[in-house]
Amino acid sequence: MSNPSPPVREGSLEAPTRYPLNWQDPEFYEQADLESELERVYDVCHGCRRCVSLCAAFPTLFDLVDESSTFEVDGVARSDYQKVVDECYLCDLCYQVKCPYVPPHEWKIDFPHLMLRAKAVQFKNGERKLSHKLISSTVLAGTVASLPVINPMVNAAKENKIMRKVASKLLDIHPAAHLPEHHRETLKKRHKYHRPRKVSATAAGPTRGRVALFATCYCNFNEPGIAEDLVAVFEHNGIAVKLTEKEVCCGMPKLEQGDLESVDKYRRKNIPQLVKLIDEGWDIVAAVPSCVLMFKQELPLMYTDDADILKVKKHMFDPFEYLLHRRKADLLNTQFQQPLGTIAWHVPCHQRVQNIGPKTRQVLELVPGSVIHTIERCSGHDGTYGVRNDSWAKAQKIARPVISRAEKMDADYLISDCPMAATQIADGLKLKHEETNPVSLLRKAYGI
After folding, report:
1. How many other CB atoms sit within 10 Å of the CB of residue 241?
2. Is there a single domain that holds both residue 299 and residue 380?
3. What is the Cα–Cα distance from 311 to 330, expressed in whole angstroms?
4. Distance (Å, rounded) from C-alpha 122 to C-alpha 82?
5. Stated pTM of the model
6. Which domain holds residue 58?
7. Average pLDDT for the chain
8. Cα(73)–Cα(224) distance, rounded to whole angstroms?
9. b/e per residue, 403-440, with b = 16+ CB within 10 A?
């Protein structure tokens, strides 16, 4: 008599293990193998359904199953599998906080990486829209929109109904989507002659007291004030700050499109200069969580044996993560000049999945009289998803519970470490104050 098969575990209590993304393996792009894996994972998700509240990908999958002839995944046409993929914007929360079947569980479910693989296959087959390729080219768009002659026209077009209809047709941008301002005086131009203050750098935990700011496309072209506030706060705390010189996009917008070759191109431009800075004694900080995540998680999973990428991962920090390390060594200035009152703090998905804890809240709580209320739910923006014609309404629906919670808090400020998420939420609120970034709020508390 043969031994019975061991029972399948219902979930796992072990720490999740993330496998490398084998994107350079030819098998990664095989359509039949991909569809087989999609069917396997969809079947597990259908039998579980814990992630139904996270985003539109899972309701889309479950609706396809429930409306099929068999009420099972085998009744769903494989041509419809991509409908689920198109709703995933790689926030990673299903892997990090919901799924009980991630490795080392024997089913080895990594839904975000499977969706990324499907997007990569779609991109390689030329099936991604040209408009999506264009709006994810943030350096190109920002550079063109900041040109002296073009800049005023671009900003004026945001408010022009006719131009918004044109953008809707050509670039697939929803006419009602909020579009950020583009600055002619970019952060790089404003800080062209900025020199780091000469300070006696003191180490604190993994930090060394000297920071090179990876400006990010968004802070360089759209909201340079956030980066300027970060520089002011860090220098107020005795931390020398300089800008990286020749950075390009971190690659996250291209990753979300499945354009892994562009991610690799950006990697080859960014990593050598960041390593050079690190070797010269500088730590790296970025003000947008998605950019930090790109260097701390996505690139290391794409290049597991690259020593330079692992070095950047070790020395890349979220701003408040960096400040809290200084606080633990009693190196954070706590001489605040202005109370902040009640703050509704939205935690961006790409910050949550870094597993660094509520560092922003812990720093802001040092300001006397401040009360921080936390909102841990997706804003629904995620870059291009929040502005495209086919997903704008869904993004608004995802944001609605966050806006509702913020309204009930009756806070003095609504903030999010992600400036795009902050805008998404703020658009649905009548704010008492304009500051929506925690770095800017911390500068206000310092009175600098």
Report:
1. 23
2. no
3. 26
4. 9
5. 0.91
6. 26-124
7. 90
8. 47
9. bebbeebebbbbbbbbbbbbbbbbebeebeeebbbbbb
